[in-house]
Amino acid sequence: MKQNYELMLVLNPALGKDENSVARERIQEVITKDSGEITTDEEWGTRRLAYPIKKGGQTYLEGSYHLTRFKAEKTIVKNLEEYLRLSENVLRHLLVKNAAPKAEAAKVEVPEAEAAEVEVPEAEATKVEVPEAEAAEVEVPEAEATKVEVPEAEAAESEVTEKSKNKE
């Protein structure tokens, strides 16, 4: 039974357009030779890597990204993984199994009858219970709220500084 897969490739950025397309065609041949079928193939371009990758005695700071979605048997996947691991042009790869391709996943619709079955009664949705002790507010009389107390020593100092300012 065929499964849906996504393959993300990071290829050597030093490859020219021709070499890049040849490397991708070889990967596609590995997928399609045993009845695998490619659904989408996207080129994302050259991007800076999050961290340097050392391969083949060189350090790479950039990579050419490609995303391929395909359907294939498990046996093809094992061969593909082995090819990608041994290929000099592939810096990194990630192969994941998908439940369904994006195009098919978007077509799944829930009938209105099923969607309307799950309802929360309005009374339960807005009902919030707060214990009376927590709900009580602390009230401060207005006179205390605006009253600011200054210790006597500070009050005396401020009077002295005000008098000296007036003399000047």
Sequence-ordered SSE layout with sheet pairings:
Elements: E1 3-11, H1 17-32, E2 37-55, E3 58-72, H2 74-86, E4 90-98, H3 102-107, H4 112-117, H5 122-126, H6 132-135, H7 142-146, H8 152-167
Antiparallel strand pairs: 1-3, 1-4, 2-3
Commentary on this structure:
The protein is α+β, with helices and mostly antiparallel strands. It has a domain at 3-103: 2-Layer Sandwich (Alpha-Beta Plaits), CATH 3.30.70.60. Helix content is 42%, strand content 31%. The protein has eight helices and four strands. Strands 2-3-1-4 form a four-stranded antiparallel sheet. Strand 2 (37-55) and strand 3 (58-72) form a beta hairpin.
What is shown here, in short?
Helices cover about 40% and strands about 30% of the residues. It is α+β, with helices and mostly antiparallel strands and about 170 residues long.
What separation lies between the terminal Cα atoms? 99 Å
Q: In the CATH classification, which architecture of the domain at 3-103 applies?
A: 2-Layer Sandwich
Quote the CATH topology of the domain at 3-103.
Alpha-Beta Plaits
Query: How are helices and strands ordered from N to C?
Result: EHEEHEHHHHHH
Average pLDDT taken over every residue? 75
Poorly predicted ranges (pLDDT <50, ≥5 residues)?
Answer: none
Largest sheet: 4 strands, antiparallel
> How do the strands of the widest beta sheet line up side by side?
2-3-1-4
